[in-house]
Specification:
single chain; alpha+beta; Alpha-Beta Plaits; four-stranded antiparallel β-sheet; three-stranded antiparallel β-sheet; 5 helices; 19% strand; globular
């Protein structure tokens, strides 16, 4: 039985419509709540609003940390709702970075100021600060990231089960290959997750460990970047293991170049407190010894007087 050209054309149109509808349903950004995705020629194209720009992104894996930081540091529609001028903001480690087209940090950062410094591949400052003439010859790679977490009442959970649950969360949620999870250790309530990935091991399609750490830090702090319909969980036997207080450590392939020439206000305050405590301790020690010396002299004087009375 043969079919007419008109029938075949109609069938082809129906197939195209069904494929487009199916693609449109699956075309969404799994790694950012503000990702804008549209089906185009049987492909899902996604963009992320950063300032006035719509930056092309790959929503099938974590978005580069440089793009995420840049979006957070830009006000208005590119970020969250603008805060009142008198609101307190914790800007620890957050600045408006310069990014390469592929989302990699530029080696030199100036944050729209006359002060510049060099960063590693995680965007963390690794040198002292200087003026616009400050040179950064290369972007030094962060090959080792330590994620420190605090667990709540998990002593009854076997460590092997908890390790496997953490690995499952990292590989499934952040798409990091298992080989880059180097080690997981427990020390009391603390969990240490070692992520290692040197320059020769990472391929262009591999998720970067610094991006995973940034996503995980946001998840644990309760400020997730991934859509809320996919909550962060570490599941052991179907139960979520609560963790808190994330702390991230970055180790570079080359030693950092930060000197002690410029002390931060926090470090100066600590030094002042320590010095004051030492001085106070010395003063107390001197006064105690003087007081003890007066008592000893008084006792000797009384003993001499008593001896004179007995011999007279």
């Amino acid at each position: 039985m043969t079919t007419s050209p008109l029938f075949r054309l109609g069938a082809a149109l129906v197939c195209c419509i069904l494929i487009s509808q199916a693609l449109g349903q699956d075309c969404s950004c799994n790694f950012h709540v503000k990702g804008d995705c549209k089906a185009n020629n049987n492909a899902c194209e996604c963009r992320l609003p950063i300032g006035p720009d719509m930056v092309p992104i790959n929503c099938s894996q974590p978005i580069p940390k440089c793009f995420l930081m840049k979006r957070e540091s830009n006000p208005g529609k590119a970020g969250r709702r603008p805060k009142p001028e008198n609101a307190l903001v914790d800007n620890d480690g957050l600045y408006n970075p310069d990014c390469e087209d592929n989302g990699v940090f530029k080696a030199r950062q100036c944050n729209n100021t006359e002060t510049c410094w060099c960063v590693n591949s995680a965007g963390v400052r690794r040198t002292d600060k200087g003026d616009k003439n400050w040179k950064c010859t290369e972007l030094v790679r962060t090959f080792w990231v330590i994620v420190q977490l605090t667990r709540n009442n998990t002593d009854s959970i076997p460590e092997a089960d908890l390790k496997n649950a953490i690995k499952d969360t990292i590989t499934n949620r952040y798409k990091l290959l298992l080989k880059f999870i180097n080690n997981i250790e427990f020390e009391g309530p603390l969990i240490y997750i070692d992520l290692k990935q040197n320059f020769t091991e990472k391929t262009p399609n591999d998720v970067d460990i610094v991006d995973v750490a940034y996503y995980m830090e946001k998840d644990v702090k309760g400020d997730p970047i991934i859509p809320l319909n996919n909550p962060f969980q570490i599941l052991v036997n179907g139960k979520n293991v609560p963790v808190k207080e994330p702390l991230i450590f970055y180790i570079d392939e080359k030693p950092h170049e930060i000197s002690m020439k410029r002390l931060t206000a926090g470090l100066i305050a600590v030094i002042v407190v320590v010095v004051v405590a030492i001085v106070a301790g010395i003063v107390v020690l001197i006064l105690t010894r003087r007081k003890k010396g007066r008592y000893e002299k008084a006792e000797v004087k009384e003993m001499n007087e008593m001896q004179k009375q007995l011999t007279s």
